[in-house]
Write a structure and sequence with these properties.
Two copies of one chain form a homodimer.
Chain A (H helix, E strand, L loop, with lengths): L29 H14 L3 H4 L5 E5 L2 E10 L5 E2 L2 E2 H15 L3 E12 L4 H18 L2 E10 L7 E10 L16 E4 L5 H11 L15 H9 L4 E6 L4 H13 L2 E5 L7 H10 L12 E5 L4 H8 L9 E7 L6 E4 L5 E3 L13
Parallel strand pairs in A: 5-6, 10-13
Antiparallel strand pairs in A: 1-2, 2-7, 3-4, 5-7, 8-11, 8-12, 9-11, 10-12, 13-14
Helix pairs in contact in A: 3-4, 3-6
Chain lengths: 351, 351
């Protein structure tokens, strides 16, 4: 029952058949996007949130600021190449970078489970500190809550981040044009596979480590290098395919990618085959895609080559005006296929 | 094993006897403060965090900004007078207010439990929207994660907030002086009792409702009214006593309070007696204490009288130079007692 001026939300039709939250809603796929649209974006329909970027861009007293948040529920808490705490720094730093901001400050909210080892907590907090130092950010405010023992998750972390925007590049799906070139900064699939291998107790000849790392410096190098960056997106839940679909749909363009140009390490590819995953859909935590003006593609590649935050930069495709919202792939043997977003996520609790 | 430049944390002695997190660590009492000091403040020892305020004050491109975060794990999710979502707005808005900032923007991170009713989620999100509108803030960025069914908590929420500082008042424990006057904006104990009564299935003649509400406008009224505000603190976990002890210790002053001047409603007092709680220790979610210059005490009371965010403003005590760090109470019958911070919290999961 609503009175004038009193905001309420009615249950949208698409959820009539799924009246409860499922794991799919957390997967970075269509179920999650529908939930965000139908529940959160409907409720908070302000222009800033409607930008549908990872980070909001706000102006305060003339300062141009980016503001973002992410919660981290990854299991296990420690994995090859990282842990939940450094991930909580990298993920939020990278969301700020996707808005073209220079990350400055983080908040850290800890939800601790009764029974969590304090020694483990100390280890994680020290890891968060090292990651923050390496990213050039400071954790300046925080909170601690405790919940009763349940499920043995140990802890959840939320970080919010503030960054400053120091350029005039208009970055967002709205800036994407047919003809734009798509680049990524490195090989795909490491994070999701590292997590899954740890959970499944799989051992490979060499442990596959998460690529959890900041990408902010690489992004800022592109911007300072004069590259006309139109859109940025990190390749987390749902992998490259999820990010590419988000951009294609929001920008109203088609994105065409070439499989031979998309770097995937042999061991990661082998593990994907073993586990039944497609590396293009697997989560990464140190990878982003950039959609740049065609004229600047070569320069963008130059900037990224040799950059420590770009292990294997590559031009992997382009935007075009056909079939807006669709992502297609030219396979190694020249066949064409559509890369649809999955409804759920292949791997739950990876970030 | 640490290499030069690599930050690690050793387990501090006080935790040798309690190697795991307990519910007490979440209580707002001494156990929580020790955890924050020994784990979090040691790790992130930068000047901003060391201010030990709820919100950090940062400067970006000349803009003076307050930044804070809180996680919300209250059970039940809906209670008389509020719910976890509006609480998540009020709590973070009020932390910004405690830094003397005008709240502007919030982020909202949702951790949803598998099985959570989407209808309930819609209700909570609409409540968050109404609360944000009433507080004059916008939720501009967010995140959604899903965890497997466990314990039936339903969801946890984290909000981070950004506010702007538009005055030159230096607010913090360091500004507190002997002779300063202590005020509060209303009667105590409603929130904790509302939660506990709901959990215990207690029914009173009239339901005791949480005082969950913003206090930012009341604080800004004090500042704009020219009151020399030295320190502010909201009276959440651990109640008035916890906040008073935090200020007394950080400021190095004694605080002396008078029981007859501290408003507590009869029904709340009765419920406290029934449940075995001291209202001075019970959590509030729409109450703050202000420590102001003695000369401005009367003006402060004038400003608050009649203010919608100050149901029962009262001068309740003063700061003095004796026994620094100690909080004392003159009881109704004139006896003196020390109000020590409890080690845990009387009521878990109240915010």
């Amino acid at each position: 029952m609503s009175t004038p001026g009193e905001f309420t939300l009615s249950c949208p039709m698409p959820h009539a058949s799924s009246p409860v939250i499922t794991m799919a809603h957390g997967g970075g796929g269509t179920a999650m996007h529908r939930l965000i649209e139908d529940v959160f974006l409907r409720a908070f329909d302000n222009p800033l949130l409607a930008q549908r970027h990872d980070a909001a861009r706000i102006a305060i007293d003339g300062a141009r600021i980016a503001f973002t948040t992410d919660s981290y529920v990854v299991q296990p808490l420690e994995f090859p190449g990282g842990d939940i705490a450094s991930l909580a720094v990298h993920g939020t730093v990278n969301d700020l970078a996707m808005a073209g901001a220079r990350p400055l400050y983080l908040s850290a909210g800890f939800i601790l489970e009764e029974g969590l080892s304090i020694e483990l907590l100390l280890r994680l907090v020290a890891s968060m500190r090292r990651a923050a130092d390496a990213c050039g950010v400071q954790v300046v405010t925080g909170d601690t809550k405790v919940i009763e023992r349940r499920g043995g998750d140990g802890l959840f972390i939320n970080t919010a981040g503030i960054g400053v925007i120091e350029h005039d590049c208009v970055i967002g799906p709205g800036a994407v044009r047919p003809g734009d070139v798509v680049l990524i900064n490195g090989d795909l699939g490491r994070h999701g596979i590292a997590i899954m291998a740890t959970r499944e107790g799989l051992e490979f000849e060499t442990a596959i480590e998460s690529d959890s790392a900041p990408v902010a410096d690489a992004v800022l190098a592109l911007l300072r290098g004069g590259v006309e960056v139109h859109c940025l997106r990190d390749l987390t839940r749902g992998g490259l395919v999820s990010a590419a679909n988000e951009i294609a749909q929001a920008a109203g363009v088609g994105l065409h990618l070439r499989e031979t140009d998309i770097p995937v390490r042999d061991d990661v590819r082998g593990a994907c085959e073993l586990l039944g995953f497609d590396p293009l859909y697997v989560a990464n935590e140190g990878r982003f895609m950039a959609v740049v003006a065609a004229d600047d593609a070569a320069r963008a590649l130059d900037v990224l080559r040799g950059h420590p935050q770009a292990p294997q930069p590559a031009i992997i495709g382009h935007a075009h005006a056909d079939a807006p919202g669709r992502v297609t792939l030219e396979s190694r043997i020249g066949a064409q296929r559509i890369l649809d977003m999955l409804s759920g996520e292949q791997l739950p609790r990876i970030c």
